Every structure is written in structure tokens, then in C-alpha cells.
Amino acid sequence: MSSIYTKIVSSMLFPLHEKLKKHDTVEIRKSLEQSQWFSKAVLKQNQSKRLQKFIQTVYEHVPYYREMFDSANLSPVDITCSEDLAKLPFLDKTTISTNFEKLKSDIAGSLSRFNTGGSSGQPLIFLLGNERVSHDVAEKWRATRWWDVDIGDKEIVAWGSPIELGAQDKVRLIRDGLFRSELIPAFDMTEQKLLSFLSTIQKTKPKMLFGYPSVFDLLAKTAKQHGIQMDNLGIKVAFVTSERLYPYQRDNIEATFGCPVANGYGGRDAGFIAHQCPQGGMHLSYEDIVVEIIDPQGNPLPPGQSGEIVVTHMGTSEFPFIRYRTGDIAVMSDKTCACGRGLPMLEAIEGRSTDFVVALDGTILHGLSLIYILRDMESVEAFKIIQETKQHTHVQVVSKSGEVNQQMRDTIMTGFQARLGAEVSVTVESVAEIAPEKSGKYRYVISKVSTT
Ligand SMILES: [Zn+2]
Predict the structure, then answer these.
(1) What region holds the AMP-dependent synthetase/ligase domain (predicted)?
(2) What is the model's pLDDT at position 171?
(3) Distance between Cα 273 and ligand 1 center (Å)
């Protein structure tokens, strides 16, 4: 029964859905499933060809890059391979917001607007074209199938919150109904809600889980505490993403749900950069994304050395992401994976960590529930949230206008108290910039309150 449904969804409904959205996701996925087995040399050759074409198109149609190339006395033919990208400047969030209109291609189709907190806590608004969406979906689809599951299989997604459900997310929920993926809101996690999530998972018997590692870790902990068995449901894999995956979380999730954890790295802004295969390799989405690792001075680093991840997404000709700084730290590998795929790999990802915060009544909240409040404020340039105690939270804000006015303070105060408790105190500090952690990494939520 279930496998026939899966087949129908995978072979008919999903392709139809994608076609309606004018995406050629299916063809791209099929082509990716062939190219993943190519040798590194062939993959590199193909990447260079695609990069040349991409840069040519961008030069012809994107005013920001045409001006940049011209003023630097560069021509598109100067970029022949990934190493040549070092001739071009980096793209960061400030550059994107300053040059927003000029970054749009003059032949772009319909573009959707996205808003993300990114990993540095500096909100980013950017545009996504159909080409990019179809490539991102195809990359995720390919990696899903590495685990002997497919789109259309039952899935539990621990993601998002009712607070952030916009029109777009509602469309997604309808789609989720069609594709049998059920959404668990990963916020407001009282013990009672955690128990009810566990019971939903037990009833649904999903083939796969998808969401934040911290959430599945918390669910695993709760199951263990209450002696609830979760490893007999036939779950084949737990896909985790958006946060750093700690080894103890992996062990805990694998032991409790009786399935391997597949780590994924990337986001809406930078694209799905890397996915883990069953043999453990963090394979890059190499056909679509060029990854560079750079030192603090901006110089490219060889494999084995730790530095910031910079990505060039070749599916973004309508709103280019060229040498986009992610703020995340990783090491490139020069090893070959036991799975036989030629796709190069990341060795370690040290970036991304989203902490939980604890409300006055003990409810554990995902840090994102506070982040969304600041992310949705037009006047906020960057921020950092520090929960000092259950009773007190401190917020550093970089305002676009240079000063944090009373209205902004009130919005933050009201939003935080609604989630943490009416009695908590919230101090808002206006700062010129957010300093990175000692590690060089930016964290946008830090809680000093223990969740255990
Ligand atoms: Zn592999």
C-alpha cells in the first residue's frame, strides 16, 4: 500500500507539482543522480564550464556585476574555473541590501522574496528565482534518495512556528498534506507537548524525520525519561539541518529512534551546501555550488584548514550569489568517500548553533522564537540575544538609523514577554556592531539558563 502511494507521489504528483511551478526539478535530479558518480576530475571540468556560462549570463544581465567587472577591468572570460573567483569581491549581507535593485537580472522571471536571519543574526532580504528553487529542491531530493527513502514517504517535520506562518507557509502546509509530511511546531516545548509530539510520531510511523537536531535530541531525551519506545516504528533516517549537530545529539537520536542521523548543511540564503551520505561523507552540492574556504584576510585555504565558507551558487543568475560569505566555519576534505560518489566533501562544519531559551514557567523555547521578533523589524540591522537568567534577558541591537527608539524597545519588550513570561525583564542595548565570539563565530542567541 504505502510503497505504491510513494511511487505515485514520487513519479507523478511531485513532478506535476514541480511542473506547475515551472520547475524542471525532475530532469535536474535525474542528471544529478548520474553526475554524482563521475570522477572528481570530470566533475571539476563540468563545474568550470557551468561557472563560465553563469558568469557570462550574470555579466550580460545583472547591472551590479556588469559595473563591478567593468570598473575592475575584468571580463567574464577571466573567470574560467573556481580558482579564478578569487579575482572577484565577496558578497555580504550589507552589499546585498545596498545594491538590491541592481542585483536583479534584467531578464529575471518571477522572483519570490525571502527573509532570513542567516547565521550571523543580521537579517537578509533576497530574491529567489525559479531556476534556483528547482536546483535546490533537486539537490535535496537527490540526497534524500541516498537513504533509501523518497519524497512521498511519510515524514515528520519538526519546524517553524504558527507565529511565522505566512501565506507562503500555508501553501507549504497544503503541499505537505499532499506529500504526507506532517509539521510539528518546534516551539513552546513543554514536557506535555514533547510527549504529544512523541505520540504523533508513534501514530504516524514515518519513514523519515526532518528538522533541527536540538529538537529531535530533546524528543529523544523525553522518550528516554518516560521509557517510551521509539525504535520500533520503522523510521529509516533522521535528516537534521540548520544547526550544528553535536556528537552527543547524534548518538542520542540514533539510539532512541533506531535510525541513522543524516546531517545537512545549508540554508535558504546560501543554498543546500552539503548533505551526508550513509557512509558518512558530507558531500557538496558540487554541480550547483562552488565552495571556497577562506582565512580571516579573505585568502582561499587548501583542504585540511579551517576557515569561513564562501559559496557561489550557479543557479542564481536571476539574483546572483557570487562569493557569498556565510559566516560559518568549516574544513574542506581531500579524501574520497567509501560510497564511491565523486562529489567532494566537507570534513567538519563548526558553524551554526541555535540555543534554546527557557521561559519563566520552565517551558523550553527554540531560540528562533525570539529571533523572529527581531528579524521581522525593518529597523533592525543586526542583533544578539543573551538570556542571562530566567528572569532577565539582554538584547543588543544595531539599528539601521543608528539609534534604537522607544517604539523598537516596546516591540522587543512586548514580543519577548509574550514568549518568556509577562514578569521577565528585558534590557535593550543600542550598539554600533555585534562582536563575534572568541571562536570568530557569530551566535545570535545565547542562553545561560540550563534546559535540563
Ligand atoms: Zn559518500
Answers:
(1) 196-313
(2) 46
(3) 15
Low-confidence residues of the chain, pLDDT below 50? 1-2, 118-120, 161-171, 173-174, 178, 352-354, 438-441
Q: Do both 203 and 236 map to the same domain? A: yes
Residues 314 and 172 in one domain: no
Q: How far is the CA of 432 from the centre of ligand 1 (A)?
A: 44
User: What is the Å distance from ligand 1's center to 146 Cα?
Assistant: 9
Task: Retrieve residue 94's grid coordinates.
Answer: 550589507
Number of other CB atoms surrounding residue 285 within 10 Å: 27
Q: What is the DSSP secondary structure assignment for residue 76, as one 8-state letter?
A: G
Closest alpha carbon to 221 in 257, 245, 186: 257
Domain residues for the domain of 200 are 148-259
Task: Report the pLDDT value the prediction gives residue 411, as an integer from 0 to 100.
Answer: 95
d(CA 275, ligand 1 centre) in Å: 9
Q: What's the confidence (pLDDT) of residue 439?
A: 42
pLDDT given for residue 67 in this prediction: 97
CA 323 to ligand 1 center in whole angstroms: 26
* C-alpha 284 – ligand 1 centre gap (Å): 10
Please tell me the total number of residues recorded for the chain in this structure. 452
Count of domains for the chain:
3
Question: Which of residues 302, 319, 349 is at a domain's end?
Answer: 349
Place of cell 574520497: 336
CB neighbour burial string for 374-395, b if at least 16 within 10 angstroms, e if fewer? bbebeebbbbbbbbeebeebeb
Can you spell out the DSSP letters for 117-176?
-TTTS--EEEEE-HHHHHHHHHHHHHHHHTTT--BTB-EEEE---GGG--HHHHHHHHHH
Print the SS3 string covering 3-17.
HHHHHHHHHHHHHHH
Give the model's pLDDT for residue 445: 83
Say what the pLDDT of residue 130 is: 85
